Amino acid sequence: MSESGAQVLARTEARRCLTDIEPRLFPGNGGPDHGEVVEVCGPERTGKTELLYHLLCRCVLPKSAGGLEVDVMFVDTDYSLDMFRLVSIIDSRLTRALSPSAGSDEEVLRSCLSRLLVVHCSSSSQLLLTLHFLENSFSSRPGLALLLIDSISAFYWLDRCEGGASFSKQEEKLSKCSELLGRLLRDYRITVFATCHAIRRIHSGLSSSSFSSSDSDRPYLCRSWQHLVTHRLLCSRQASTAGGSKEQRMRQIFTVHCSSSTGTKAHRISSFHVTDGGVDFT
Q1: Residue 205 pLDDT exceeds 50
Q2: DSSP 8-state secondary structure symbol assigned to residue 31
């Protein structure tokens, strides 16, 4: 298939590098570079989706409000995207950052939302078709620098069921998605963040209560996907303490352990809590 001049330009033009997307998460200059993938993993209710909202807002906000002013594609496989929550976070950050002379709140908010594209998928087959469709978006929008997938593991059990006893059939669809995603990363130099749910493994001879957290945090998706991942953000929730004020006891703290498979294999541990205005690092 032949490319138009605009498509060639979009594919070859240097997109916004997102190594500085959130310095408090990544060690030094260890943030994701062009063509890299960050897997955000952990059990339920450990702040993974809120972290995605934080990164999304950081990208679509104007530079005058501390943002990067880049376009974002959000692929929602869990049908859990809360637009009211997202708009509330963006609005809160604009209110804190901008002076009244910067323009009307509604005008700036609309400008931020214009940088966001959202698609929904309900199966691995739909995800594969969506990734094919996204190539047109990356070709026509040089400002589209970030792809968010929430979550990449949404169809894991469905694919295992449909694949029957064949391990290769169980992983076939996600493997194809990963291969196509790898081509998009190479050709369009985008950055990808994807959430991945922790999985409970029941080993032979062990009860369901005897599994360890390290078991549930081990990578389990197909090798094609694992080979794409360059950074891993492991999310967890700190146990509430009995001491301190009522406000401190009510404020849940989440911890993120960042590890990288690139360069020096640097790592970093950070923590945050969730407010009405989004993620607040501590």
Answers
A1: no
A2: S
